[in-house]
Write a structure and sequence with these properties.
Elements lengths: L2 E4 L5 H8 L3 H7 L1 E5 L1 H9 L4 E7 L6 H12 L3 E5 L1 H7 L8 E6 L2 E3 L16 E7 L4 H14 L3 E5 L8 H7 L8 E4 L1 H15 L2 E5 L5 E2 L8 E6 L8 H6 L2 E4 L11 H13 L4
Parallel strand pairs: 1-4, 3-4, 6-9, 7-8, 7-12, 8-9, 10-12, 10-13, 11-13
Antiparallel strand pairs: 2-5, 3-5
Helix pairs in contact: 3-4, 6-7, 6-10
The structure holds S-adenosylmethionine.
């Protein structure tokens, strides 16, 4: 069993794990941090590769912790028994977790998105959410969690987006990061792919905009939907508006001129997919 007791916050492995808070380091290593036993179990159950697990000495006898440690060993990872000081160093200061996992990232290229194999969880329709230049990691994480909740298929990140593997985004996914495939594409790659997607599925490509768009209640979505959401400041670009089969609008009745991106995505997904049916 590859296990190690670490009590010093200056241990080089602890420093390496801590460094994963930086995007540069995540990019170099292809690894990311996950806080909390529940999310680590989620990663394990979804078959993600667990490179390190750090757990507090006090909970080492817990069955779930033992299960994760044994899984980490199967992944050729290293299990670290640690104390409060080490956990505080690598965990959230305000609410340190007693388990931290380090997993391998799994970001996919759009070329590998096999449209024919997609079906949502109630096997009635396909839905992919495309986010253009999403900048707020909290929004991105919340959207990934919502995609998982409604049983949609995947998320595509178009252009310069925030990192889905940042600690803030991962926290906001609450473990859903492991069950929602994440694809990345440039604007041009996405436009090409969307054309092929429409030819193959005959589905809708729905843009979401505040102007020149139809009320979302007027759209009867087909069984395949590609939902495009715009950037928090600039909204959906003209390029993407051009490829939309329709642009939909959620009515705004008060003084607010728009909804928060993740709220708007959630409302659209529930309205379009009707996951309660
Ligand atoms: N100033 C931006 C604009 O004019 O689009 C506001 C962007 S809004 C904060 C971010 C994204 O959330 C939008 O691009 C759109 O995808 C979605 N969104 C927000 N409110 C919406 C609404 N009422 N109807 C449709 N989409 C909305």
């Amino acid at each position: 069993m590859a296990e190690k007791l670490i009590t010093s916050p200056t241990n080089p492995i602890v420093k390496d794990i801590k460094a994963l808070e930086m995007r540069k380091r995540r990019k170099e290593t292809g690894l990311f941090l996950v806080e909390g036993l529940r999310s680590v179990i989620e990663g394990m159950e979804c078959g993600a590769t667990l490179k390190y697990i750090a757990y507090h000495t006090d909970i080492k006898q817990k069955d779930d912790v033992k299960r994760c440690v044994s899984y980490c060993n199967k992944c050729d990872g290293l299990a670290l028994e640690v104390n409060d000081i080490v956990l505080e160093k690598i965990s959230r200061k305000d609410n340190p977790q007693s388990v931290i996992g380090v997993f391998e990232q799994k970001t996919l290229s759009l070329k590998n998105l096999d449209i024919q194999s997609l079906k949502n969880k109630n096997d009635t329709s396909r839905c992919i959410v495309a986010l253009e230049q999403v900048r707020d990691p909290g929004n991105l994480g919340t959207i990934i969690r919502t995609i998982d909740a409604v049983g949609a298929n995947a998320v595509i990140l178009i252009g310069q987006c925030c990192d889905p593997y940042s600690i803030e985004a991962v926290r906001a996914t609450m473990g859903s990061l492991f069950s929602v495939p994440i694809y990345q594409a440039t604007l041009e790659e996405f436009k090409d792919w969307a054309k092929g997607w429409q030819e193959k599925t005959g589905g809708d490509i729905l843009g979401t905009t505040l102007q020149t768009s139809v009320d979302f209640r007027e759209v009867k979505p087909k069984s395949s939907v590609l939902l495009m959401m715009g950037n928090e400041q600039a909204g959906l670009s003209e390029d993407l508006r051009q490829i939309a089969t329709s642009c939909i609008r959620l009515p705004m009745n008060g003084r607010a001129d728009s909804l928060n991106l993740s709220v708007a995505t959630g409302v659209c997904l529930y309205a379009l997919l009707e996951p309660w049916k």
